[in-house]
Amino acid sequence: MTRDLARTRADVALPLAQFYIARSRATGDLRYLGYAEGELLPWVGSPSPVQPTALVLQATILQSRHAFDPALVELDRALAIAPNNAQGWLTRATILRVLGRYPEALLSCGRLAPEAESSVVQLCEQSLRALTGHLQEAYAEVESIPPAALPPPIQAWRDSELAEMAERLGEDTAAERWFREGLRVAPEDVYLRAAYADLMLLHGRAAETLQLLSGYDSFEPLLLRIVIAQRLLGDTGMATAAGRATATAQARLESAFALEEQRGESVHRREQARFLLDVEHRPEASLAAALENWRVQREPDDVLILLRAAREAGRPDAAKGARDFLAQNQLQDSRLEPYIEGARR
Fold it and tell me: In angstroms, rounded to a whole number, what is the distance separating the alpha carbons of residues 133 and 30?
């Protein structure tokens, strides 16, 4: 009944699409994105009146599939119709940040005001300043935002930004505190959980990583971290239950990555590069995946896996584009320093 109504009523279709998008994020099941797309179809094209909110939701779906350029096209359509659509500008800023187009992203943050809360504008802008040579100052600015007055999703965003900034500053104790606080506010935030797991793995805390990720093996990025932690603990022998579980998880990842390649998708290309490097110990294959990923997105973690794979493959020059990107944007990240220094020698 609800889905029948959604074909003719935007007030039914748009919340239903939002529900499916939320379910996809909560479960890791990309099929829900297809369901959401189906609900939006009557509202994103002619001859029906185009709904700007529907276009923003469609852009969100494309963003989740890492189809960033088509997502920007949909956002441009939405913002031409509704130039004060704050969610549209925020989504645009987020995508441009992933693409490493920081000046454009900062302009989109500026368009949020006066429709968005000042804390949202501040978070948007400072998260970008932290990637363009102002890491310490941005960290202080975000820390000064009072958390008590923030809605839980915005508070979790604040904590996530603070955790990642602290980690890039090399302040891992503070980073862990912010990760814990973020997960207290938003325990189902898969992105936060994955980033916290990476911090633990960096310090060899494999058993704690498995505790953190228990029950989250349906998400491929988290399953990857589970397999890495299991291997660090030596759980690889087929004679034990733990070893068999590791082999099963590894096979699941291999199958998922192979299927994405067959479809020409790049949603988990960064995870694939890390899987090839840290699990299968195939640096050349990892470097190829990391370079393909670099063509799609340019976040600090994309820089990290490319630098690591290039060094392990004995081809540091293959990561020249990433090093140029770091220099151009004055991006600071303590995790990258060993690989940058190694390349200079």
Answer: 36
CB 255 within 8 A of CB 275: no
Phi, psi dihedrals of residue 151, rounded to the nearest 5°: -60, 150
Cα–Cα separations (whole angstroms), residue 278 to 110, 231, 271, 273: 40, 9, 10, 9
SS3 annotation, 286-338: HHHHHHHHHCCCCCHHHHHHHHHHHHHCCCHHHHHHHHHHHHHHCCCCHHHHH
Q: What Å distances lie between residue 305 and 144, 207, 217, 219, CA to CA?
A: 32, 23, 22, 20
Q: Which residue has the tokens 């990433």?
A: 322
Residue 343 pLDDT > 60: no
Alpha-carbon torsion angle 146, 148, 154, 158, nearest 10: 40
Instruction: For residues 69-93, give the mean pLDDT.
Output: 96
**Prior bond of 15 cis (ω within 30°):** no
Decide: pTM greater than 0.90: yes
User: In the chain, where does DSSP find H-type helix?
Assistant: 2-6, 10-27, 31-40, 52-64, 68-81, 86-98, 102-110, 118-129, 135-143, 152-168, 172-185, 190-202, 206-213, 220-232, 241-263, 269-278, 283-294, 300-312, 320-329, 337-344
Contact 294, 321 (CB under 8 A): yes
262-278: b (≥16 Cβ within 10 Å) or e:
eeeebbbbbbbbbbbbb
SS (H, E, C) 155-180: HHHHHHHHHHHHHHCCCHHHHHHHHH
Name every residue whose Cβ is closer than 8 Å to that of residue 309 and which is 6 or more positions away in sequence: 273, 276, 277, 283, 286, 287, 289, 290, 319
Which whole-number Å values give the CA distances from 179 to 63, 170, 186, 265, in the listed order? 24, 14, 10, 30
- ∠ CA(121), CA(125), CA(130), 5° rounding? 145
The pLDDT confidence band at residue 46, using thresholds 50, 70 and 90, is low
| pLDDT over 80 (residue 4) | no
